[in-house]
Each structure stands twice: as structure tokens, then as C-alpha cells.
């Protein structure tokens, strides 16, 4: 397996496919998944001459199930270590959900400063901040997030099965046709990771404020979101993030769910390609 070791001794697993002289595209996965969640996108872009890279976040997938460091600063630093190791230049960073937060912090605090980033894409992403606060009255009540932690601690396996079978892909909507393979693949990825990392990760993705990060990002940024996203509601995420970005473009997809990279890859992949080529 391809891995790097961070300064604090964490082994980060990564995939690096395609021509080494191709433009790099770096994919940042959502909670509590792994690099495998990007298989459809990685195959699509490697077939078009790009170099595609995806890593398992610390505590997730095949990376070390470490006890600490499950916060956005560590996540972004891990990506910076990987980008330095591979010496990536002119990269496009694509982040989904929690990975959108990770990518945002990486670009703002590491990638831009080292001239490694060309563009950014945020898909169903958590910025600017998910939790309800005095400054963010439209956010999710902390009780909702506490409920996720309680379900994870009580029975992670059942919780993940229910999550993938229902709101993540919109399979709980009337007339939706659930794909068992998609559900089981989500469950498989989740159960590969560590419970501690996933438990702490809920705080990381929901309580981190990315407002200042978004304001400092200069590179062209595409913000993609489904208006039927039941995990990261669009009104308190994409609609706000797109206004904070200096060079942002918002694309809203009618009735698309949170997991639209999987359910609607036939739409999302060409849209990504068009943005990268633009």
C-alpha cells in the first residue's frame, strides 16, 4: 500500500493513479468513508489523462486508527504533507461533505501559500459552519449532532446501515430506487475506520467555522449542492459559502441528494470536467 507518515507518526494511505505529468486532481472524501468513495470519479478522470489522488483521512479506511488529531487543522496538515510528498503543482482539489471542509482549510492555509492549487470544488460541503450558533441561527441544533454521536456509540454498524439506506442517498424519498450494493459499500467503508475517529469527526465537521478560510481563497471555486440534501442542508451551506468566496460559482441541482456523486455521477462528472477545463 502507498502511505506517508505525518510528523505526529500517523500513516496516511493514498491512491495515486494515472500519468505523473497529468494535471493532478485530489479528492477529499466525506465522513465516515474512505478514498474508495471516489472510485467512479477517479476512473472517469484517469481515463481522460488526469493524475488522480485520493487519501484515507486519519482514523478512516486504511490509515492509522490513531486516538487524537481528529480536527480540521490536522486533516488539512495531513493533506499538505501528502501534497508535499508528491510535489503536486496546479492541482484541483475536490471535496465532498466533510472533505469539503478539509479541502477548504487546506487550500486556504496551505495550498495557496505554497502555490500548489489551481482550483477548488466543494460538493455538498459543510462550510461555512453547520452547527446552530448565535452567529449562525440557521444551523443544525447541537441536539441533532449529539443524536448522531449517541447512535454511533450505541451501535455503529446499525447506525451506518440506516444512514446509507436512508437520507445520505435520498433512498428514503418516495419512489426512490435504493441500490443495495451502494448501501453495502458505504457500510463497508465506514466500518473500516475507527469508531473514535468517527465520533470525534462529528465535532470536526459540524463545529468548525470556515468563514475566514472561505474569505481568503483566491482560486476559482465551484460550489455544487443538491437542493434535497438531507445531511448538509443547502440554505446554511452552499448558499452562504458561495457569497463568501472571492471567485466562486454556485451550481444547484434540483432534487439531488447528499450522495449525488454516486447517484448522479453521469451529471456530476461532466460538470467537474467542464469546470476543470474552463
Topology:
Layout (H helix, E strand, L loop, with lengths): L2 E3 L5 E7 L6 E5 L10 H8 L4 E5 L16 H15 L4 E6 L1 H14 L5 E7 L18 H24 L14 H13 L2 H13 L3 H6 L4 E6 L11 H7 L3 E6 L6 H4 L1 H13 L1
Parallel strand pairs: 3-4, 3-5, 5-6, 6-7, 7-8
Antiparallel strand pairs: 1-2, 2-4
Helix pairs in contact: 2-3, 4-5, 4-6
What does this structure look like?
By secondary structure, the chain is α/β, with parallel strands linked by helices. Helices cover 42% and strands 16% of the residues. The chain has one domain: Rossmann fold, CATH 3.40.50. An eight-stranded mixed β-sheet has the order 1-2-4-3-5-6-7-8, sandwiched between helices. The termini are far apart.
Give a quick precis of the structure.
The protein has a single domain, classed as 3-Layer(aba) Sandwich (Rossmann fold). The protein is 42% helix and 16% strand.
Amino acid at each position: 500500500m502507498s502511505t506517508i507518515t505525518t510528523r505526529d507518526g500517523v500513516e496516511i494511505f493514498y491512491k495515486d493513479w494515472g500519468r505523473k505529468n497529468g494535471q493532478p486532481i485530489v479528492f477529499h472524501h466525506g465522513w465516515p468513508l474512505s478514498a474508495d468513495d471516489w472510485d467512479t470519479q477517479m476512473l472517469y478522470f484517469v481515463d481522460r489523462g488526469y493524475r488522480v489522488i485520493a487519501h484515507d483521512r486519519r482514523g478512516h479506511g486504511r490509515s492509522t486508527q490513531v486516538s487524537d488529531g481528529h480536527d480540521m487543522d490536522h486533516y488539512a496538515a495531513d493533506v499538505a504533507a501528502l501534497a508535499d510528498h508528491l510535489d503536486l503543482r496546479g492541482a484541483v482539489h475536490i471535496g465532498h461533505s466533510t472533505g469539503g471542509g478539509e479541502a477548504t482549510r487546506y487550500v486556504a492555509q496551505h495550498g495557496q501559500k505554497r502555490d500548489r492549487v489551481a482550483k477548488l470544488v466543494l460538493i455538498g460541503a459543510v462550510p461555512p459552519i453547520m452547527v446552530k450558533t448565535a452567529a449562525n441561527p440557521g444551523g443544525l441544533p447541537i441536539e441533532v449532532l449529539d443524536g448522531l454521536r449517541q447512535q454511533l456509540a450505541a451501535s455503529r454498524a446499525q447506525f451506518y446501515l440506516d444512514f446509507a439506506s436512508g437520507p445520505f442517498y435520498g433512498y428514503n424519498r418516495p419512489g426512490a430506487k435504493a441500490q443495495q450494493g451502494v448501501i453495502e459499500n458505504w457500510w463497508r467503508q465506514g466500518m473500516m475506520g475507527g469508531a473514535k475517529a468517527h465520533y470525534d469527526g462529528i465535532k470536526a465537521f459540524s463545529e468548525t467555522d470556515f468563514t475566514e478560510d472561505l474569505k481568503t481563497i483566491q482560486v476559482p471555486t465551484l460550489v455544487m449542492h443538491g437542493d434535497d440534501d438531507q445531511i448538509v442542508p443547502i440554505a446554511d451551506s452552499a448558499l452562504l459559502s458561495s457569497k463568501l468566496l472571492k471567485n466562486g460559482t454556485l451550481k444547484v441541482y434540483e432534487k439531488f441528494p447528499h450522495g449525488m456523486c454516486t447517484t448522479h455521477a453521469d451529471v456530476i462528472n461532466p460538470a467537474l470536467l467542464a469546470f476543470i477545463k474552463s
